[in-house]
């Protein structure tokens, strides 16, 4: 697992770019097509990254390992979380009455009632009457609390996937590379370009930077 193309093509950086592209487009996907489309988006982004990776002289062996990590290991974990996040966003996070002002008022009233019962209970050591108003405020803001928590949980999942990919690449104890494979990767990267034949050089001036010479018919 030898990356010779630069840190931009480390597992974590590539995975971050792929997940960012998927996140940008997932909200427009229908539930029945989300899984297939997310895989297509990920593969298309990988193909785009691979073009610049090949120009930097990276080895195909490393790219195959990277692609396998993204498609086979990380993407199945991401897709399930992305589909659930889509469902929550489109259903307004499963909130009663979609968290409209009436629902907020009832949540706040419920928090005030519960807080009052807790203060009135002799076996619960609450000495501050403002505790009931604190619960009322929490009930009124329950919709924002639930939305923030759901978004934070999804973001934490994305960060965890990226951190796992970075740790997997950097943990050298998991990877064993023989001298033959290392030499093969280095030779593949350092292989010189195939030189053009004399016929290819003179036909159209390719490879010389000069225009082809036309031979006049002297007859």
Q: Whole-number average pLDDT?
A: 82
Largest sheet data: none
Order of helices and strands: HHHHHHHH
Binned, the helix content reads: 55-70%
Kindly, what is the distance between the CA atoms of the first and last residues, rounded to a whole number of angstroms? Answer: 65 Å
The assigned structural class equals mainly alpha
> Uncertain spans, ≥5 residues at pLDDT below 50?
193-197, 200-219
How would you describe this protein?
The chain has 219 residues and is mainly α. The chain is built from 8 helices and no strands. Helix 1 (11-26) packs parallel to helix 3 (60-90). The longest helix is centred in the middle third of the chain and has 31 residues, at 60-90. The relative contact order is 0.12.
Please outline the helices and strands.
Layout: H1 11-26, H2 34-55, H3 60-90, H4 101-120, H5 130-140, H6 142-170, H7 179-190, H8 198-202
Outline of the structure:
This protein is mostly helical and 219 residues long.
Structure keywords:
single chain; 219 residues; mainly alpha; 8 helices
